[in-house]
Amino acid sequence: MSDAMIVGSMLAKEIQEVADARDAWKTHAQKVEENRDKWKKYAETVQVELAIQQAYVAGLKAIIEAAKSMHANSPLFSGSGASFKDGSAKSIADKKFEAAFDAKAKELGITNPEDHRAS
Q: By residue range, what is the domain housing residue 104?
């Protein structure tokens, strides 16, 4: 075998290895792009679900405000003896909200719900 043939054979082998590596990276890049598109779609779905939950909360707040204005003397809105971090008094309704919020958050795997609620 001549030197030219040996060199040619070695170059062909190296070229094939480079082509194989290129193909592997191309396959990897396609998978990354597919995953990116899936995560983007998931994020969009979560954003819509969050917006719906925020709208739902706004509706519930409107009901509470209406109940407060129509039934201001209800025991539900009277003091509970507890207070918020800023020192303002918590109503019985506030305490019930906190208890329900904390219970549901814990059920959903949040170990410190008090760090995530506004009260």
A: 76-119
- Tokens standing for residue 28: 């990897």
* pTM as predicted: 0.62
Residue 81 in 3-state DSSP?
A: strand
- Region label for 74, one of left (φ > 0), alpha (ψ between -120 and 50) or beta (otherwise): beta
Question: Do 93 and 77 touch, CB atoms closer than 8 A?
Answer: yes
Say if residues 90 and 82 touch (Cβ distance below 8 Å).
Answer: yes
Beta strands in 1-119 (DSSP E): 79-83, 89-91
3-state secondary structure at position 116? coil
Domain assignment present for residue 3? The answer is no
The tally of domains found in the chain comes to: 1
Query: Which tens digits make up the pLDDT trace of 20-79?
Result: 999 999 999 999 999 999 999 999 999 999 999 999 999 999 999 999 999 999 999 998
Distance between CA atoms of 71 and 58, rounded to whole angstroms?
A: 20
Cβ proximity of 79 and 90 under 8 Å? yes
- Residue 109's region, left for phi above 0, alpha for psi from -120 to 50, else beta, is left
